[in-house]
Structure formats: C-alpha cells, structure tokens
Design goal:
The structure holds two protein chains of two kinds. Chain A is mostly beta strands. Chain A is built from no helices and nine strands. Chain B has a single domain, classed as Thiolase/Chalcone synthase (Peroxisomal Thiolase, Chain A, domain 1), CATH 3.40.47. The chains are: A mainly beta, B alpha/beta. The complex binds zinc ion. Zinc ion binds next to loops of chain A.
Chain lengths: ~150, ~375
Amino acid sequence: MSATGRERVPIESGYFSVPESDAEAPLLFGSRCKKCQETFFPRREVCASCLHRETTDVSIGPRGTLYTWTYLYVPLFNSQRADDGGYAVGQVDLPEGPRIQAVLRGGPDDFAIGMEMQLELETLRQDDEGRDVVVYRFRPRSEGGSE
Amino acid sequence: MSFDDVAVLGVGMTRFGVYPDLSPLDLAREAGFLALDDAALGFGDVAEAFVGYLFGGPMTGVRAMKEFGLTGLPVTHVENASATGLVCFRDAAWAVASGRSPIAMAIGFDKMTEAAGSTPRAGGGGRDAIDNVILPTAYFSLWAMRRMHERGTKPEHFARIAAKNWNNGALTPKSHRQPDHRITVEEVLAARTLAEPMTAMMTCPVDDGAACAILGSVELARKLNPGRPVVRVKAAVLQSETYTPGHTFLGPVVGPASMTRDTANQAYEQSGIDPRDVDVALCHDAFAVEELQYYELLGFCAEGDAEKLLVDGETEIGGRIPFNTDGGLIARGHPGGPTGLAQIHELTVQLRREAGRRQVEGARTGLAHLVGGGSVCTVCLLQRV
Ligand SMILES: [Zn+2]
C-alpha cells in the first residue's frame, strides 16, 4: 500500500521488492555465486564469471554510488513525468558489486559522478484493476524520501 | 586453402538514405548486382550466401536471394544487431577459406526508416518493460559523461569527431549525409542536445540501404579482374561479451569497452598485423564518443591519449590513421544490416586506391570495427596484396 492508498504491483515480477509501506526502501533481487561469491543483477541460475551452476538469491541495495549519468531531452513514454521534457538515467554501483542502469529522479543540474544514491519506487500508471504499477529508480541520497 | 588466400572479389552498395518507394529486396537487388558486376561474376557463380538484416520476418534472406534467381545455393541468415554486416562478411570469408564454397556472397539490407517507429530507438523510449528503459543514446552518453569525468574530455572533442565525419561524408558519393558546406565544431555543438553531452549532429541518421561483398580466392580475383589490385582478407574476428565486474545486464547495452580491445587483439594476432601497420580504420561511430574511445581500444594510441590523437588531426584524411573516411555511421549512415558491408566497400575502394578525393595516400591495410547491442564486437582486417 502506498501513500495513495492503492495497492502497488511491480512492472515485472522477480526484479525488485515492493514493501508494504512506501516509507521502506525497495531492494533489488540478485544472485550470488555459491563458489566465487560474485553478485549479479538481475537473478541468474549460472555464475557469469566462473560458470558455477549454483547461485543463491540475495537482496541488494538500496544504497549505491553514481558511476555515470546523463540527462535526456526527450519525453519518457508511459511516464507521468513526460511533461518534464526529459529524464535522467545513470549507472549506480552497489556495494554488493553489481552496476545498475536505471532512471534517476532529478533534473539536469542534480547529479555528480561519485554521489551517494538511494533506490526508490516510482509509480508509472494504474493497471486495469486500479493498482499502481511501479518500477525502481535512484535518487541522490541528499534529497528527501524514504530511507 | 588458407584464410590468407581469401580475397574480396567485388563490392557494391546503394547510397544510404531514405527510400520510401523501394522495398528492402529492391535495395538488396541493387547492391547485389553492383557487387557481382564489380567482381565480373553472375549470380549463378555464387556457391553460398550469408544474408544479414535486423528487421523483416523469418526467411527474408532466402526471399532476397530469390530476387537474383533460384539456383539452389545454401543461404544462412545472420543477425547480430549493428554488427550484422561484418558478421556476414566473416562467415563468407570462412566459407571460402574452409574450401566449402569457392565463391561466397555477404549481403545486408534494412529499412530503418520503417522499423524506427516500432523500436525504442526512434521515440522517447518505452517504459512498459523492465528491460526497455535505457536508450542507446543514453547508453553512449553515459560513456561520454564518464570519459569527461576521468579524462577532462570536452564536448568540443566529440564535436570535432562528428564534424570530421560529416565532412568526409561530403567526399563520399554513397554517403547519406553530404553537407553542402564545411561543418564546424561550433555547428555540431549548436545542434539540439539529445542527451548530455550529445547533440543531434553527433549521432547517426535513421536510414535505409543495402551493401554486398563477393569473396573468393586471391587467384580467382586476379583471373576475374586482371591488372586490378587484389584486396585480401587478413582477419575476421567475432566475439561476444566476456564478463567483467561492473557489467550491466539489463537494457540495450553494448558490452564492456574491453570487448573492442579483446576482439582487435585477436584480429592482430591472427593476422600478424600491428596497429601501426593500419593505414585506414572504420569504426562504430553511432555516437561520436565511441570513435574517441576506439582510438585507444583498437590500439592506435595509449590509454588517455585519444584526445591528443584527435586534436593533432591524426585521424583526419592525411593524418597518421584516418578514421571513418567515408563519413562513418554519422554521415554515411547506419541502416543496420548493411552497415558493416558498407565499411568493407569503403576499405576495398581505399585499398584499390579508387577513393578519389578522400583517398588515403598509399593505403595498404585497413580495419573495420563494429559493435552490436546485446552484445558483440567484430573486427576485420583487409590488406592490398
Ligand atoms: Zn562464480
């Protein structure tokens, strides 16, 4: 349940958690190799590095460091923010290892490489059953929002 | 016969551009007959074909071959995103080298103008699936922003590469973009910003086209066109991604930058060619930042020296290692399937020294490089015998 009072569902299952309360940060669903401990996002059955065939499910995030970013001056389809005229995307390095490509919350002047980032959920639209369809994104940690 | 005995018998391509009245098969027919005529061969001589395209249903390659006649030849479909055309070329070269087919055709075609509406590339990008968030424009802008952070690279550097390639396009009859005035760094920077720091003039157009190469033995090349310089295939290498920490698995990624270095090194080792021996290079410059990075990754300068190589004018025609002499993806165009074979066309013309105003003086060895989303890298080396 979110602040809107509507039930929240992920855009696709198996990628990230949707906490009951939106005061709680979501986590990403990854895999860790049982042999070499390399961690991956999204989940995978086989280690991409050492080729070991057993991995363990792990939840990773919600904090990371901005590796690079850009701001696109094109509207984002299906976004409630299309009227912003653009959107930011970036790659965020998680302490667990994976580098995550995602949309960032903020304008063209809000980002700097190396800054601390925080995972959050964004509502894209309502589905046929009136539920909020959500996807993850990152925002600078210095900005407000759930921890 | 060995790989070293494989030659480019003929090349042909349509001018890349927007062709609302021509079908992909019309374009394929034009490029194919130009290549066959250049080789002094007929379609009946072709023993095997590798057909590349990104858009079009299953078996479109066989239908394209039927445009030339029904001869029973084996046809293999090839799809490796932007790298498709060079992968067709690689497979055709190995088909000849193995002795399986004395003459092989590599042909690519696409109508990106029709496909564009159905892909994220053209619009603002969909956000209706988890894997559909980051556009290629964004992906390469992420490279550019990181490069600027690490090396102090300026947007002017990217603009300089774009201006060079636009101006090379003006010298190339088959180029989509043929500006009627000299493009300046200022003009490139003043164009609409797509994504920080990339302007619309730093990226390739959306276009249509077809290109073709015919391969056979060096001996056959001499016999078919006596007196014409023979262009030999020295390497044709394809790699997919090798896992490196920091790999991103979701979205239209083009692999770690190291994929280009690994693939080029394999091509250099296979051929015994040193980067210092290369006289002309064509690379995947769908976005200007890529060309800058590939100066280093293809071994033409040390890591961190790409900006200096560029500013010294060494990658212009007349410089030490001219890059994208036909305008590259930025000017010549990038329809998808045929792009790599347009690079083979340009290298063949350069090595035969038939390139006119854009001729690289004394060109003997040429390199073609493409990456494809998903992700793959291919590097081919050609040499005048
Ligand atoms: Zn492992």
